[in-house]
């Protein structure tokens, strides 16, 4: 069945960069988009951005635009996100999700990113 | 700046119904293309419960329903069960590859 499998946990120092992956299977990856959503400890969900796996179009939340990049590799059905200049408030669980319908119907298991000083 | 406001918490007894509201606090929610709703149990990824304002994905019990009127969307859970205890988030989409926005989340307690 369709699934998104994310890369493992990361521990980074402040100022470093982190690159996470999200591998899709069980559906036609290039037909849909991938969103990245994060959740800080004890907090709610925050939409970070969305990328079309069809044409690479991207849309980022304004506050992250200058240090956040999303890409896709259709040959491996994998989406990537990179967050640069990490700060302590970037500590969160990062989820990828796809919207094959009018909502995010398929989610990855999440990747925990810890930023330490 | 748009924001989606949800009650921080709601509660109900088994068998009862609860409604979780999601109100757009700046421009009219009528400007959004659709609202979706997510259930999240502790330590788990969110799960889609309602999409396109009122539609239920396959496998979601028909106890869950969605509605939308003006600048407020609602998630209605009838016949509450213990396993419904979770956090619930609304999410709006403005269309044309614009941004998504999540509400702050509502903790549902089944008494």
Q: How many strand segments of chain A? A: 11
What is the ordering of alpha helices and beta strands of chain A?
EEEEEEEEEEE
Mean pLDDT over the full residue set of chain B: 91
Roughly what fraction of the amino acids of chain B lie in strands?
A: over 45%
How big a fraction of the residues of chain A is strand?
Answer: over 45%
Descriptive report:
The complex is a heterodimer of chains A (117) and B (111). Helices cover 0% and strands 52% of the residues of chain A. Chain A has strands at 3-6, 10-13, 18-25, 33-39, 45-52, 58-60, 68-73, 78-83, 92-98, 106-107, 111-116. In chain A, strands 2, 4, 5, 6, 9, 10 and 11 form a 7-stranded mixed β-sheet that branches. Chain A starts with a strand and ends with a strand. Chain B is mostly beta strands. Chain B has strands at residues 4-5, 9-12, 18-24, 34-40, 47-50, 64-69, 72-77, 86-93, 100-102, 106-110. In chain B, strand 4 (34-40) and strand 5 (47-50) form a beta hairpin.
In brief:
The complex is a heterodimer of chains A (117) and B (111). Chain A is an all-beta fold and 117 residues long.
Q: Which helices and strands occur, and which strands form pairs?
A:
The complex is a heterodimer of chains A (117) and B (111).
Chain A: E1 3-6, E2 10-13, E3 18-25, E4 33-39, E5 45-52, E6 58-60, E7 68-73, E8 78-83, E9 92-98, E10 106-107, E11 111-116
Parallel strand pairs in A: 2-11
Antiparallel strand pairs in A: 1-3, 3-8, 4-5, 4-9, 5-6, 7-8, 9-10, 9-11
Chain B: E1 4-5, E2 9-12, E3 18-24, E4 34-40, E5 47-50, E6 64-69, E7 72-77, E8 86-93, E9 100-102, E10 106-110
Parallel strand pairs in B: 2-10
Antiparallel strand pairs in B: 1-3, 3-7, 4-5, 4-8, 6-7, 8-9, 8-10
